[in-house]
Amino acid sequence: MTDQKVIMIRHAQSEWNAKGLFTGWADPVLTPLGRKEAAEAASNLAKLGLKFDRIYTSVLQRATETASIIAKSLNCQVPLTKSWQLNERHYGVLQGKSKEALAKQVGAEQVWRWRRGFEDMPPPMPLASPMHARFDTKYDGVEPTSLPSVESLKHTQIRAVNYWQKEVLPSIRNNSSVLVAAHGNTLRALIMYLANMSVQEVEGFEIPTGIPIELNINKHGRCSSWRYI
Ligand SMILES: O=C(O)[C@H](O)COP(=O)(O)O
User: Fold this and answer.
1) Mutate to test the pocket of ligand 1, among 13, 22, 157 (most ligand atoms within 8 A of CB)
2) At which residues is there a site annotated Transition state stabilizer (predicted)?
3) ipTM greater than cut 0.85
4) Regarding the domain with residue range 4-151+177-189+196-228, which homologous superfamily does it belong to in the CATH classification?
């Protein structure tokens, strides 16, 4: 079996990216620059003659908007397949806080560990917080005990890889042309698994907003090589 291609993209710039706020499961929209980034990504994909018949994304607007801009621009007539399992990693009580201000309060090293450590986690969002996902109608169909209050990258990897194996890989095997429009940490976690990265490698791995990534998936369902487009 020859390698099969899949395209992944981290959503384009959101309003909270622009303000330097921890976002996680919070749901800001794209900025005007973000919409331009998504349109540019679409035009680079079009130059390669790419078009998608399966588009997987999270339930968060910055990813669905990025996916919609690409789908519209490439004239892909398919509905988006949305799942919370492709959501950004849940950032617990950090959601809504300024990354820079927090580094001044608790130190840059602690903030780096919370952001990049594979198993590190900030304190959880209290269950009673009105910002908790269990009060958000987007998650009405989800078993409440599955909804996290905080996640490490390792937790994010478990749910994203589970979704990849159940939903995305079978579509690739079925010869669908697949786009996954998701989030920085979801994609770091997925690519770590697919490309067999070490913990040390993933801790130094950053994914920019709005730049498509082409991955070659081998017969074992793992990534043999990848590149930015
Ligand atoms: O959720 C967020 O704040 C960003 O989308 C990703 O954050 P990070 O760069 O801290 O991982």
Assistant:
1) 22
2) 183
3) yes
4) Phosphoglycerate mutase-like (3.40.50.1240)
